[in-house]
């Protein structure tokens, strides 16, 4: 049977009432308002991924606009190449690292459970020792009380016999 401690008084009454409004940033309030109106999230802006041709450029600015477009295309291509490399590396090494991390977490959990079990055993041992000490003290108190009653009774007899 497990005995659960149920507090009888409010241990937090000396603390101020928490202010949960500090978490309501303008962005959070805007999102809550959007969700309460049952509106969909705005779609992602994919214009960064597009490579538009410089249209409607004059003859003089044509080369400059095309150079900007080529520079943008190279930057986006490099970004996509890096993403592809990262995905390949993750595909190769991530499962092992996740398994290793899961094993570490399981070991930590096992150790924490073992420590908890040890602590509970120590608590139960302390309770048992305290109970034994209290029972022994109770036995001694009964003996001393019996001795005291016998002495007081003896004193009354002695006082009564001298009268």
Automatic annotation (TrEMBL):
Name of one Pfam family that matches: BCAS2
Keyword Coiled coil applies: yes
InterPro entries: SPF27
The keyword Protein biosynthesis appears for this protein: no
Domain of life, source organism: Eukaryota
Residue ranges that the Swiss-Prot or TrEMBL entry lists as coiled coil: 102-129
Gene Ontology CC entries for this record: catalytic step 2 spliceosome; precatalytic spliceosome; Prp19 complex
Keywords: Coiled coil, mRNA processing, mRNA splicing, Nucleus, Spliceosome
GO BP annotations, alphabetical order: mRNA processing; RNA splicing
Primary location recorded for the protein, binned into one broad class: nucleus
Location of this chain's protein in the cell: Nucleus
Family: Belongs to the SPF27 family.
Name the UniProt record assigns to this protein: Pre-mRNA-splicing factor SPF27
Native species: Strongylus vulgaris
